[in-house]
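Weekly sync, protein design subgroup
Attendees: M.S., D.O., the rotation student, P.L. (late)

Item 1: inverse folding check
M.S. brought a backbone from last month's batch and wanted to see whether the design step gives back something sensible before we order anything. D.O. pointed out we never logged the input encoding, so this time it goes straight into the notes. Structure tokens as presented (443 positions):
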């Protein structure tokens, strides 16, 4: 099947590559010339486990191509996937300018009927706007062609994107057209051989499903952080509480880890966008506001713990940070808690020595060269000569640690653990002061 993907970011590149890998003939279009040049040169602009060999194999097989030429892209695919960004606007609503720019390009260049597949996360009603945009271009050109627009939200997680794309729990398609259903079934046929997981529904329900899923997951995290903050003040260990509630199958163990707040390109913006959508229909989504507020506060918690440990005087201190990406197995730093921490430390006059297995390039791109930031080559270099260590991301390589060795590296033996990786007893036995999240006396 001939397929076009607009946008070669985390979602577009993974979608295009996975669809090529099962035999489809895919062209990926992006307006970022540098990104396309790198992809054409065999370089993968993002870190995603397993993606690089898969891109290379499918390019070599001639099933995956890249272009910046919109006309060429539009005239390739029967299906036109939109996988461009939908960042938050100033008021928190989803900025649809990139989605609508793709719709305009499709309307400008299409020479036969097309099915537009909206994979970007977009507010309810966007499919109608995309269709209207394509049709207005067709009208201007004076041509009579048919365009269908369906919603096919993406549920993949960065860090496990390929696995999620291939083995996700469901494939949601919002459409009322039998023709579109048939084409989407053909597109995803290789993924539903084992188990039927295509869920057809109304377009609006599909658009809302994506926001509801992310808002639910964000709610679980904020709920657990709220309990962690309470546990801290009540002298209880939230890790014991977590096990206690997770064992109830109605609650489950997934997504109830307390920490230093959620980040990334999806949860923060999607919770805000859904709250904004609610306001547009005169409904105040109080729970969503609270989920967002708890998260904002939680992202300050690492700095607050450090400030407490250093009697509110961090000027001239050197703080080591392990983990900069918003979660492990990605280089994505959008809205990462590490950024809130680093920026607060610089504001307070402290220096940062940071290390992340994959996000060093991204950190350099965001913050550039600065005297108060040393980008370390590994976790050992990051702690050398530092006063304290903070863990922001639970990368595997941070999970086991020689605590007596760490004590010798740090001038003030302070460890702030934003991910509750260690056993408090073992850390303290080595003579370190250990401040985790919601673990009894770890305020
Ligand atoms: P991204 O920022 O990584 O990539 C977006 C790409 O679109 C960029 O390369 C950009 O240059 C390109 N682009 C912008 N305008 C374009 C145009 N007119 N034509 C062609 N390309 C254009 O974004 P992402 O993280 O892949 O997210 C894409 C969408 O998928 C968003 O709506 C997001 O909410 C949603 N989503 C993301 C994830 C995730 O984990 N990242 C998961 C599920 C859904």
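Designed sequence read out in the meeting:
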């Amino acid at each position: 099947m001939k397929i076009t993907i607009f946008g070669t970011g985390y979602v577009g590149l993974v979608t295009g590559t996975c669809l090529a890998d099962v035999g489809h003939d895919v062209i990926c279009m992006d307006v970022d010339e540098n990104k396309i040049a790198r992809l054409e040169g065999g370089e993968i602009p993002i870190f995603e486990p397993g993606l690089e060999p898969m891109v290379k194999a499918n390019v070599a097989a001639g099933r995956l191509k890249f272009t910046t030429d919109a006309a060429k892209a539009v005239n390739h695919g029967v299906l036109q996937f939109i996988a461009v960004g939908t960042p938050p606007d100033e008021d928190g609503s989803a900025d649809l300018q990139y989605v609508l720019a793709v719709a305009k390009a499709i309307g400008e260049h299409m020479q036969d009927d097309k099915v537009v597949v909206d994979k970007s996360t977009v507010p309810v009603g966007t499919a109608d706007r995309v269709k209207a945009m394509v049709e207005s271009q067709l009208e201007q050109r004076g041509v009579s062609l048919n365009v269908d627009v369906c919603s096919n939200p993406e549920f993949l997680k960065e860090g496990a994107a390929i696995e999620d794309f291939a083995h996700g729990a469901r494939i949601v398609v919002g459409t009322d057209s039998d023709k579109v259903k048939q084409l989407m079934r053909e597109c995803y046929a290789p993924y539903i051989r084992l188990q039927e997981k295509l869920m057809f529904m109304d377009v609006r329900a599909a658009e809302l499903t994506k926001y509801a899923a992310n808002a639910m997951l964000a709610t679980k995290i904020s709920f657990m952080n709220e309990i962690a903050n309470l546990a801290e003040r009540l002298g209880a260990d939230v890790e014991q509480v977590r096990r206690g509630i997770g064992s109830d199958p109605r609650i489950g163990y997934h997504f109830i880890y307390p920490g230093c707040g959620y980040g990334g390109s999806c949860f923060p913006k999607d919770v805000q966008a859904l709250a904004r959508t609610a306001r547009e229909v005169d409904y105040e989504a109080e729970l969503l506001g609270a989920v967002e507020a708890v998260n904002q506060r939680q992202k300050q918690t690492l700095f607050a713990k450090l400030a407490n440990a250093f009697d509110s005087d961090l000027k001239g201190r050197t703080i080591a940070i392990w983990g900069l990406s918003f979660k492990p197995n990605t280089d994505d730093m959008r809205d990462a808690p590490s950024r809130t921490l680093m920026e607060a430390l610089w504001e307070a006059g402290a220096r940062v020595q940071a290390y992340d297995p994959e996000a060093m390039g991204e950190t350099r791109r965001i913050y550039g060269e600065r005297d108060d930031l040393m980008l370390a080559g590994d976790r050992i270099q990051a702690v050398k000569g530092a006063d304290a260590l903070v863990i922001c991301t639970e990368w595997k390589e941070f999970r086991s640690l020689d605590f007596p060795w760490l004590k010798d590296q740090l001038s003030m033996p302070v460890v702030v653990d934003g991910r509750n990786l260690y056993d408090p007893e073992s850390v303290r036995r080595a003579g370190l002061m250990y401040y985790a999240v919601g673990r009894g006396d770890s305020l």
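Discussion: The two ends are 57 Å apart (CA to CA). The mean pLDDT is 97.
Action: P.L. to compare against the previous round before Friday.
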